[in-house]
Amino acid sequence: MKTKKSTLITIIVLLVIFLPLAIYGTYASHRGEVEVKNVNKDFYFNGFLYFYDESGKEKGRYECVSKDCGYVNTIIDDDEYNINYYEDGQEEKLAYSNNDFALIQDNAEIFVYSLKLNQRIVTFKAVKDYHAKVNGEAIIAQNEEGKWGVLMLPNMTTIIPYEYDFIGLANKLVDGKLDISTLIVKDANGWYLTNGNNVKKTTNITDPIVNYTDKYLLTNKNELYDYTGSLLNIPVAYQNIYLVGNYVVLINNNVVLVYDDIKKPYIGMDTISNYEKINFALDDKTLNIYLDGIIGSSIELNN
């Protein structure tokens, strides 16, 4: 009887010693799985998104709720209106973060996330991206009610309120970045230009604005307006109008005429061959015309 009692006491003592150790070991093992080091500094690792500064120091992380977690899948709806937008962007994904904010998509939801507060700041229905840098690190975003606005990500400042049915940028670069000082917008009253402070630059017109100069608006009907909304009379026959820089380019039966003022005589002329795709590039006072990717004409502008 005494032997059985001693054995029981021994078992109890061993349980008291080893059971807590077993529990702690299980906890430590589980905790170790969560804290596996992201030694390669991958963006997505072990269910988290990691954000680093330029020196490689971690700024913060976000815990994903789905496998569809990472950079934002963006849209471009400018084709619906034939907007002359920048089509040569090389950045495949919209990836943004600073010392506080990060733009994230998780489980088909798009939002700005605070790395300091570890919480969502604002949620979007869609984000537009031309796959190129934009002045001021601005994004064109659609809120959950379907209205478009513009947000400056570095300080989370809304420079264009969410009240538009469309916002777009024309194909105009400043120092290699898309110029956001002028935007093409549409609201219930029509189409017009606004500046980066949401101040109207032109009168509303009915048809979509596809491009502009400092005094003309070109619509998707191949018509030219001035900033007061007046339809302009074109002095010659034409098949197509293009705006290049601040010049108006008219093409009719492969004859090219270039104007800096549509009410005055043309300042450049040439004849080009047939083409399927045409592009233009300004080099000081020379207009270079590319036909199907090959230069087809260089017109000296005498103004």
Would you write up a description of this structure?
The protein is built from 1 helix and 26 strands. With 303 residues, it is mainly beta. A hairpin with a 4-residue loop joins strand 18 (216-219) and strand 19 (224-226). It is elongated and about 70 Å long.
- Count the beta strands: 26
Unreliable sequence segments = 10-19, 21-34
Helix percentage:
10-25%
Could you report the average pLDDT, rounded to the nearest whole number? 88
So how many helices?
A: 1
Distance between the termini: 118 Å
Would you spell out the secondary-structure blueprint of this structure?
Elements: H1 2-34, E1 44-45, E2 48-52, E3 58-63, E4 69-70, E5 101-106, E6 109-114, E7 119-124, E8 126-128, E9 138-142, E10 148-152, E11 157-164, E12 166-168, E13 173-174, E14 177-178, E15 182-187, E16 190-195, E17 209-212, E18 216-219, E19 224-226, E20 240-244, E21 247-252, E22 255-259, E23 268-271, E24 278-283, E25 286-291, E26 294-300
Antiparallel strand pairs: 1-2, 2-3, 4-5, 5-6, 6-7, 8-9, 9-10, 10-11, 12-15, 13-14, 15-16, 17-18, 18-19, 20-21, 21-22, 22-23, 24-25, 25-26
